[in-house]
Amino acid sequence: MTITTTKSAFRKGMADAAPFVLVIIPFSSLFGILATEAGLSVFETLAFSVVVIAGAAQFTALQLMQEHAPTAIVLASALAVNLRMAMYSASLTPYIGAAPLWQRAFAAYLTVDQSYVCSMAQYEKQPDMTIQQRMAYFFGCVTPIVPLWYLFTLIGAMLGTQIPDSWALDFALPITFLAMIAPMFRTPAHVVAALVASAASLATASMPYSLGLIVAGMVGMMAGARTEVWLDRRSEGAA
């Protein structure tokens, strides 16, 4: 579907992001449950989701809090997990950087994995979209995602331990990220980064306070960047 108006851009954004609802509901519910089990009140749990709005970083911080990790480690780990948002912002800037400041500020708050993945795919597929259409598409993507993230965080926190373990809500976390990253393996550099990070995470699994994830992420990014440089030099040499 080719986007021709702002309204059609918004509608397409909603449609493209709608499948993520299937994992956002159990994902956010699980966070609400685990947060209250960790000792947070219902209000604190909801505030956590509203202020941070970053699922992976929230789960990381929550796990470390349960392990009684030092505050500095909790903050550093959550920040490290969320550093991908800085890369997301850098990737989005060429497409929506000319939008009004208030729209960019709102988009910065609403930049999550789902809105980034859908938006980048659409912007690359239809590069002639106007700034207004791009922003409309972006906000369309978050419309079915963010309100449900808040709502089911609240529901999970209110239900707490009443949800049986047999429901296995924790399946949502790996499935969500697999669904998002699989289409993004477009170059050998992407594949190398993912494989190296996976291997490094297994090798550093014994590190305290889940610090191995930070190490694995850094190693994966360096491997991917190095691979990209090597491929560029190889193509230049062949030319």
Give an overview in words:
- Belongs to the AzlC family.
- InterPro entries: Brnchd-chn_aa_trnsp_permease (IPR011606).
- It is a multi-pass membrane protein.
- By secondary structure, the chain is an all-alpha fold.
- It folds into two domains: 6-184, no CATH class; 185-239.
- Helix content is 75%, strand content 0%.
- It contains 13 helices and no strands.
- The chain has helices at 6-17, 21-37, 42-52, 55-66, 71-82, 84-96, 101-110, 113-125, 131-142, 146-159, 172-181, 188-203, 211-238.
- It is globular and about 60 Å long.
- The mean pLDDT is 83.
Content of β-strand: under 5%
Helix percent band: over 70%
Q: What best-fitting shape do the alpha-carbon axes yield?
A: globular
Radius of gyration over alpha carbons?
19 Å
Order of helices and strands: HHHHHHHHHHHHH
pLDDT averaged over residues: 83
Number of helices: 13
Kindly report how far apart the N and C termini lie: 37 Å
Unreliable stretches covering 5 or more consecutive residues? none
The number of distinct β-strands equals 0
- Total domains, how many? 2
In short:
The chain has helices at residues 6-17, 21-37, 42-52, 55-66, 71-82, 84-96, 101-110, 113-125, 131-142, 146-159, 172-181, 188-203, 211-238. It contains 13 helices and no strands.
